Amino acid sequence: MFTIPEQLSAAVKTNYDAQLAMITALTRANYQSVAKMIDLNVNVAKTSLAESSAIAKQLLSAKSPQEWFTMTVSQAQPNAEKALAYGSNVAGIVAKTQAEFTKAVEEKMAETNRCVMALVDEVAKNVPGGSENAMALVKSAIGNTNAGYEVLTKTTQQAIGALEANLTTSKSEFLKVVEKAASSASAKS
Which pTM value belongs to this model? Predict the structure, then answer.
């Protein structure tokens, strides 16, 4: 039979290994997220520079202030759509990263929880009589911690869902305003 110090040592090692694996998974997900954000921003910058140059040339060729204003307004909707697409891309990267973080943490938390509960059960077998209440308290604390983590995870997922819904609503409302402004400008010219 193992002694309690040996069991504790094995549990600490298992917990350390699980934490190291979780940190590695989180670091990998974070690195991938940063790489995607850099790629997105570089592509947006290249595209914006090229488009800005072309638009500037068009605006400089305007023959009248009214023509200049019409050209400017005509760029509002495409620019708004590009800004919203950028925001959607960023939100997608963030959501994917959050999902990877959640998955890694949930897997490691479940593994750690199993190890801790196995250790507590083993220790409970070897405790002196009268310690049952203390062991029940420890098991209850572990259960409450797990329940709290589950609530936090669900709340985070709901918040991300609400953020995505708000982004979609904002996008459609913003496009309506831009279309209305473009229509007004077209009607005036």
Answer: 0.62
On the 0-12 / 13-18 / 19+ scale of CB atoms within 10 A, 54 is exposed
Q: Token pair for residue 7?
A: 């069991």
Spatial contact of 108 and 20, defined as CB atoms under 8 Å apart: no
Sorted by where each begins, the domain ranges of the chain are 4-188
pLDDT tens digit sequence for 71-113: 888 887 788 788 888 888 988 898 888 888 888 877 877 777 7
Q: How far apart are CA 76 and CA 82, in angstroms?
A: 10
Tokens of 55: 């638009």
Q: Which amino acid belongs to residue 66? A: Q
C-alpha radius of gyration, the chain, whole number: 28
> How far is residue 94's CA from residue 140's CA, in Å, rounded to a whole number?
35
Q: Where do the H-state alpha helices sit in the chain?
A: 4-60, 65-74, 76-126, 132-188
Q: What are the φ/ψ torsions at residue 54 (nearest 5 degrees)?
A: -65, -40
Q: What is the DSSP-derived secondary structure letter of residue 96?
A: H
**How many other C-beta atoms lie within 10 A of the C-beta of residue 43?**
12
| Side chain identity, residue 33 | S
Q: Which residues contact 11 (CB under 8 A, 6 or more apart)?
A: 115, 116, 119
